[in-house]
User: What shape does this take?
Amino acid sequence: MSRIGTNPITVPASVSITVDAGVATVKGPNGTMSRVIPDGITLEQSGDVLTVSRVNDETQYRSLHGLTRTLIANMVVGVTDGWSKELEIIGVGYRAANGGPACSTSRWLLAPVKFNAPDGITFEVPVPTRVIVKGADKEVVGQVAASIRKIRKPEPYKGKGVRYLGERVVRKAGKAAK
Assistant: This one.
């Protein structure tokens, strides 16, 4: 039995969940999200508790049981609180600026790189060396943060570049002098 799949999902009062024709729709203060529910997986709501169950113990349904529960729980958190990822920029001359729906990073002696936000994603730049990516969909927030990090990955010798807040970069030793 899936341990994650058997955990019930607590639904806040401000969130409504509807299942229609194999599509689960979650509505809340931060928007509406929907996802297709795989065949063999059912959602049952009683009061403020939502449970996910499967048809039988075949490998296919066992693997989808916990996944579906986690995806629905992430949707509930996304429409109530939202998700965020923080990135920090390290290095002389590297900085970020918030330009409305876009975030631009400037690199020393190179042209600035402008990154446009997809729908539902917002950027905050509290300090020129920190970017906060916010949104309701956890997958999209993580993908946008990874795309920004990809602009300039942290290099192993001096540690310069864009990294997640608190990420540990393994440093390499430079050339040994003879």
Notes: The two ends are 61 Å apart (CA to CA).
